[in-house]
UniProtKB/TrEMBL annotation:
Gene3D superfamilies the UniProt entry points to: alpha/beta hydrolase (3.40.50.1820)
Alphabetical list of Pfam families matching this protein: Esterase (PF00756)
The protein's name: Esterase
Organism name: Paenibacillus beijingensis
GO molecular function, one term: acyltransferase activity, transferring groups other than amino-acyl groups
Amino acid sequence: MALIQCDYYSETLGLSCSMNVILPQQTFSQIGMGGKTRGGKHPVLYLLHGLSDDHSIWLRRTSIERYAAELGLAVVMPAVHRSFYMDMEQGGRYWTFISEELPAIARSFFPLSEAREDNFAAGLSMGGYGAFKLGLRCPDKFAAAASLSGALDPAVITDRLHGFDREFALIFGSADKIRGSDNDLFHLAQLVAEGGGTVPKLYQCCGTEDFLYEDNVRFRDNAQGLGLPLTYEEEPGDHEWGYWDDKIRRVLKWLPLRSK
């Protein structure tokens, strides 16, 4: 596979940004790892980081390059700082960036498929929220979304993260502005379920010792009650990279990749 550190300019954010990109490569003589391509433009996974991380973290903490190699899958890992993938109350328009500008920029640089059935999102913690938000707000663009230990209810995140109150106000404004809005995953799930349109596949996992476990159970119960196509898994585990390294392999096996 090809591994690319890509530095570029975002018109939406008005600043220079970075992303790491893994591109499929057909290989036959690599020792310990094979690589494949599918022909034509590549299916792509937008893999999102958590609150304290950046575009490099999935490469540093997991073997995502090795895991994706045999699938012929491109992986785009952008940096969004501590934005919660939001058009922030006081800050950058990171939702517009991640949902509109980033895919367009990535496709202009690399041979990535525009077809819905070839586009997926996944992320951990804050990135789990971002991935489900992409899937539920843009079901016409993403065939599947996966959340690993997701911060799925930001309206209560200050109860989970000590000292986050001031930063929360800069990002969201107030909890009242989240409830029932396009930033509320519970509300979005209901809209998708009742809309009669295209519904993305969803995968959700969380360790039972994770500080976000209660919120994940509430989202699971809500999504299942709405009849959404949710695959849910839980097992002993905490909010840490050993768990996510294991579960991202599960996500890659679960993705509805087209056979080619």
